[in-house]
Amino acid sequence: MGKNYIESSKLIDRNALYTPKEALDLTLKTAKAKFDETIELHVRLGVDPRHADQQVRGAVVLPHGTGKQVRVLVFAKGEKANEAKAAGAEFVGAEDLLEKIQKENWFDYDVVVATPDMMGVVGRLGRVLGPKGLMPNPKSGTVTFDVQKAVQEIKAGKVEYRVDKTSIVHVPVGKKSFGNEKLADNFRVLMEALVKAKPSATKGQYIKSVSVSSTMGPGVKVNPTKVLE
What does the annotation say about its assembly with partners (predicted)? Predict the structure, then answer.
Protein backbone atom coordinates (compact mmCIF):
# COMPACT_ATOMS: atom_id res chain seq x y z
CA MET A 1 0.00 0.00 0.00
CA GLY A 2 1.29 3.46 -0.88
CA LYS A 3 1.51 6.37 1.54
CA ASN A 4 -1.45 8.23 -0.02
CA TYR A 5 -3.63 5.10 0.09
CA ILE A 6 -2.84 4.53 3.78
CA GLU A 7 -3.56 8.18 4.62
CA SER A 8 -6.78 8.12 2.61
CA SER A 9 -7.96 4.95 4.32
CA LYS A 10 -7.89 6.74 7.68
CA LEU A 11 -10.69 9.03 6.49
CA ILE A 12 -13.06 6.11 5.93
CA ASP A 13 -14.96 4.08 8.51
CA ARG A 14 -14.74 0.55 7.08
CA ASN A 15 -17.82 -0.56 9.03
CA ALA A 16 -20.02 2.34 7.95
CA LEU A 17 -22.55 2.40 5.11
CA TYR A 18 -22.68 5.88 3.64
CA THR A 19 -25.31 7.67 1.56
CA PRO A 20 -24.29 8.12 -2.11
CA LYS A 21 -23.46 11.81 -1.50
CA GLU A 22 -21.35 11.03 1.56
CA ALA A 23 -19.56 8.20 -0.26
CA LEU A 24 -18.78 10.38 -3.27
CA ASP A 25 -17.53 13.19 -1.00
CA LEU A 26 -15.14 10.77 0.70
CA THR A 27 -14.05 9.28 -2.62
CA LEU A 28 -13.14 12.73 -3.92
CA LYS A 29 -11.23 13.52 -0.72
CA THR A 30 -9.24 10.29 -1.00
CA ALA A 31 -8.41 10.73 -4.71
CA LYS A 32 -4.92 12.13 -4.20
CA ALA A 33 -3.15 11.09 -7.41
CA LYS A 34 -1.66 13.82 -9.60
CA PHE A 35 -3.85 12.86 -12.57
CA ASP A 36 -7.62 13.19 -13.00
CA GLU A 37 -8.68 9.88 -11.47
CA THR A 38 -11.67 7.91 -12.72
CA ILE A 39 -14.43 7.39 -10.15
CA GLU A 40 -15.76 3.84 -10.35
CA LEU A 41 -18.95 2.17 -9.14
CA HIS A 42 -18.88 -1.46 -7.99
CA VAL A 43 -22.16 -3.30 -7.38
CA ARG A 44 -22.50 -6.88 -6.12
CA LEU A 45 -25.77 -8.36 -7.36
CA GLY A 46 -27.83 -11.24 -6.01
CA VAL A 47 -27.70 -13.14 -9.30
CA ASP A 48 -25.97 -16.29 -10.49
CA PRO A 49 -24.34 -15.30 -13.81
CA ARG A 50 -23.83 -18.96 -14.69
CA HIS A 51 -27.53 -19.06 -15.60
CA ALA A 52 -28.61 -17.40 -18.84
CA ASP A 53 -31.83 -16.09 -17.25
CA GLN A 54 -29.84 -14.23 -14.57
CA GLN A 55 -27.51 -12.28 -16.84
CA VAL A 56 -27.43 -8.52 -16.26
CA ARG A 57 -26.19 -6.55 -19.24
CA GLY A 58 -27.10 -3.29 -20.89
CA ALA A 59 -26.01 0.25 -21.60
CA VAL A 60 -27.02 3.71 -20.47
CA VAL A 61 -26.10 7.26 -21.45
CA LEU A 62 -24.66 9.12 -18.47
CA PRO A 63 -26.01 12.70 -18.22
CA HIS A 64 -22.48 14.10 -17.81
CA GLY A 65 -20.57 11.50 -19.81
CA THR A 66 -17.50 9.67 -18.54
CA GLY A 67 -14.88 12.35 -19.06
CA LYS A 68 -13.06 10.07 -21.46
CA GLN A 69 -12.50 10.56 -25.18
CA VAL A 70 -13.95 7.40 -26.71
CA ARG A 71 -12.65 6.08 -30.04
CA VAL A 72 -15.33 4.29 -32.03
CA LEU A 73 -14.83 1.67 -34.75
CA VAL A 74 -17.81 0.88 -36.99
CA PHE A 75 -18.26 -2.09 -39.29
CA ALA A 76 -20.61 -0.89 -42.02
CA LYS A 77 -20.90 -0.47 -45.78
CA GLY A 78 -22.40 2.03 -48.19
CA GLU A 79 -24.73 4.66 -46.79
CA LYS A 80 -24.41 3.30 -43.25
CA ALA A 81 -20.63 3.76 -43.44
CA ASN A 82 -21.18 7.39 -44.49
CA GLU A 83 -23.58 7.90 -41.57
CA ALA A 84 -21.01 6.51 -39.13
CA LYS A 85 -18.32 8.87 -40.43
CA ALA A 86 -20.67 11.85 -40.26
CA ALA A 87 -21.56 10.95 -36.65
CA GLY A 88 -17.89 11.12 -35.65
CA ALA A 89 -16.67 7.50 -35.73
CA GLU A 90 -12.87 7.41 -35.90
CA PHE A 91 -12.67 4.19 -37.91
CA VAL A 92 -15.20 2.89 -40.45
CA GLY A 93 -14.85 -0.08 -42.76
CA ALA A 94 -15.65 -3.72 -43.44
CA GLU A 95 -13.37 -6.59 -44.52
CA ASP A 96 -10.42 -4.18 -44.57
CA LEU A 97 -10.77 -3.61 -40.82
CA LEU A 98 -11.16 -7.34 -40.23
CA GLU A 99 -7.83 -7.94 -41.97
CA LYS A 100 -6.10 -5.13 -40.09
CA ILE A 101 -7.23 -6.50 -36.72
CA GLN A 102 -6.29 -10.08 -37.61
CA LYS A 103 -2.90 -9.32 -39.14
CA GLU A 104 -1.73 -6.38 -37.02
CA ASN A 105 -3.38 -7.24 -33.68
CA TRP A 106 -4.80 -3.71 -33.86
CA PHE A 107 -6.80 -2.38 -30.90
CA ASP A 108 -6.55 1.43 -31.05
CA TYR A 109 -10.28 1.90 -30.33
CA ASP A 110 -12.57 1.69 -27.31
CA VAL A 111 -15.96 0.59 -28.68
CA VAL A 112 -16.97 -1.47 -31.72
CA VAL A 113 -20.32 -0.95 -33.47
CA ALA A 114 -21.62 -3.07 -36.35
CA THR A 115 -24.67 -3.15 -38.59
CA PRO A 116 -26.51 -6.51 -38.40
CA ASP A 117 -25.54 -7.42 -41.97
CA MET A 118 -21.84 -7.13 -40.98
CA MET A 119 -22.03 -9.54 -38.05
CA GLY A 120 -21.01 -12.43 -40.30
CA VAL A 121 -17.69 -10.65 -40.78
CA VAL A 122 -17.37 -9.41 -37.21
CA GLY A 123 -18.20 -12.86 -35.85
CA ARG A 124 -14.86 -14.10 -37.18
CA LEU A 125 -13.20 -11.74 -34.68
CA GLY A 126 -15.02 -13.19 -31.68
CA ARG A 127 -11.90 -14.81 -30.25
CA VAL A 128 -9.95 -11.56 -30.23
CA LEU A 129 -12.69 -8.98 -29.54
CA GLY A 130 -14.62 -11.08 -27.00
CA PRO A 131 -11.92 -11.34 -24.29
CA LYS A 132 -11.36 -7.58 -24.49
CA GLY A 133 -15.07 -6.80 -24.10
CA LEU A 134 -15.20 -5.26 -27.56
CA MET A 135 -17.59 -7.64 -29.32
CA PRO A 136 -20.70 -5.78 -30.59
CA ASN A 137 -23.92 -6.91 -28.94
CA PRO A 138 -27.60 -6.04 -29.57
CA LYS A 139 -28.25 -5.72 -25.80
CA SER A 140 -25.73 -2.90 -25.50
CA GLY A 141 -26.98 -1.21 -28.67
CA THR A 142 -23.77 -1.81 -30.59
CA VAL A 143 -25.40 -4.05 -33.23
CA THR A 144 -27.80 -1.75 -35.05
CA PHE A 145 -28.66 -0.20 -38.41
CA ASP A 146 -29.02 3.17 -36.66
CA VAL A 147 -25.25 3.67 -36.55
CA GLN A 148 -25.61 7.45 -36.38
CA LYS A 149 -27.54 7.26 -33.09
CA ALA A 150 -25.22 4.57 -31.71
CA VAL A 151 -22.06 6.60 -32.38
CA GLN A 152 -23.60 9.83 -31.09
CA GLU A 153 -24.71 8.16 -27.83
CA ILE A 154 -21.30 6.59 -27.27
CA LYS A 155 -19.63 9.95 -27.85
CA ALA A 156 -22.13 11.57 -25.46
CA GLY A 157 -21.15 9.24 -22.61
CA LYS A 158 -22.90 5.92 -23.12
CA VAL A 159 -21.44 3.18 -20.92
CA GLU A 160 -22.01 -0.55 -20.99
CA TYR A 161 -22.55 -2.52 -17.79
CA ARG A 162 -22.24 -6.28 -17.46
CA VAL A 163 -22.18 -8.58 -14.46
CA ASP A 164 -18.92 -10.57 -14.23
CA LYS A 165 -18.33 -14.15 -13.08
CA THR A 166 -18.25 -13.03 -9.44
CA SER A 167 -21.70 -11.34 -9.73
CA ILE A 168 -20.19 -7.83 -9.65
CA VAL A 169 -20.74 -4.95 -12.05
CA HIS A 170 -17.82 -2.50 -12.43
CA VAL A 171 -18.52 0.73 -14.31
CA PRO A 172 -17.09 4.29 -14.35
CA VAL A 173 -19.28 7.19 -13.22
CA GLY A 174 -16.94 9.99 -14.27
CA LYS A 175 -13.75 11.79 -13.32
CA LYS A 176 -12.57 13.43 -10.09
CA SER A 177 -12.79 16.82 -11.85
CA PHE A 178 -16.57 16.38 -12.28
CA GLY A 179 -17.25 17.19 -8.62
CA ASN A 180 -19.91 15.64 -6.40
CA GLU A 181 -23.02 16.96 -8.14
CA LYS A 182 -22.26 15.59 -11.63
CA LEU A 183 -20.94 12.32 -10.21
CA ALA A 184 -24.13 11.95 -8.14
CA ASP A 185 -26.28 12.43 -11.28
CA ASN A 186 -24.31 9.77 -13.15
CA PHE A 187 -24.40 7.44 -10.11
CA ARG A 188 -28.19 7.73 -9.86
CA VAL A 189 -28.78 7.07 -13.57
CA LEU A 190 -26.54 3.98 -13.46
CA MET A 191 -28.22 2.59 -10.37
CA GLU A 192 -31.67 3.15 -11.89
CA ALA A 193 -30.56 1.23 -15.00
CA LEU A 194 -29.24 -1.66 -12.89
CA VAL A 195 -32.45 -1.86 -10.86
CA LYS A 196 -34.55 -1.90 -14.07
CA ALA A 197 -32.30 -4.65 -15.46
CA LYS A 198 -33.14 -7.02 -12.60
CA PRO A 199 -33.81 -10.49 -14.08
CA SER A 200 -37.22 -11.95 -13.26
CA ALA A 201 -35.51 -15.21 -12.23
CA THR A 202 -33.65 -13.48 -9.40
CA LYS A 203 -34.71 -14.46 -5.89
CA GLY A 204 -34.00 -12.62 -2.63
CA GLN A 205 -31.99 -9.41 -2.28
CA TYR A 206 -30.93 -8.05 -5.67
CA ILE A 207 -28.55 -5.20 -4.72
CA LYS A 208 -26.20 -6.96 -2.29
CA SER A 209 -23.51 -4.31 -1.83
CA VAL A 210 -22.38 -1.05 -3.42
CA SER A 211 -19.10 0.82 -3.23
CA VAL A 212 -17.35 3.67 -5.03
CA SER A 213 -13.64 4.31 -5.39
CA SER A 214 -11.16 6.40 -7.33
CA THR A 215 -8.50 4.83 -9.55
CA MET A 216 -5.86 4.86 -6.82
CA GLY A 217 -8.02 5.25 -3.71
CA PRO A 218 -9.75 2.91 -1.26
CA GLY A 219 -13.35 1.74 -1.67
CA VAL A 220 -16.17 3.51 0.18
CA LYS A 221 -19.27 1.45 1.02
CA VAL A 222 -22.70 2.78 0.08
CA ASN A 223 -25.90 1.76 1.87
CA PRO A 224 -27.70 -0.46 -0.71
CA THR A 225 -31.11 0.74 0.51
CA LYS A 226 -30.27 4.39 -0.22
CA VAL A 227 -28.74 4.16 -3.71
CA LEU A 228 -31.72 5.79 -5.44
CA GLU A 229 -32.13 8.66 -2.98
Answer: Part of the 50S ribosomal subunit.
Alpha carbon 140 to its chain centroid, in Å, reads 10
The residues, ordered by sequence, that sit 6+ positions from 149 with a Cβ below 8 Å of its Cβ are none
Q: Where in the chain do CATH 3.40.50.790 domains reside?
A: 72-155
- Over residues 83-125, the pLDDT tens digits come to 999 999 999 999 999 999 999 999 999 999 999 999 999 999 9
The CATH code for residues 13-65+158-226 is: 3.30.190.20
Quote the CA–CA distance of 48 and 51 in Å, as a whole number.
Answer: 6
Q: What is the pTM of this model?
A: 0.80
**CA 29 to chain CA mean position, Å:** 23
pLDDT in tens, 148-175: 999 999 999 998 899 999 999 999 999 9
In single-letter form, the type of residue at position 121 comes to V
The CATH T-level fold of domain 72-155 is Rossmann fold (3.40.50)
**How many other CB atoms sit within 10 Å of the CB of residue 194?**
23
| Span 58-84, pLDDT tens digits | 889 999 999 988 999 999 999 999 999
- Positions of CATH 3.30.190.20 in the chain: 13-65+158-226
Please answer whether residues 56 and 47 qualify as being in contact, where contact means their C-beta atoms are separated by less than 8 angstroms. yes
Task: Name the 3-class secondary structure at 207.
Answer: strand
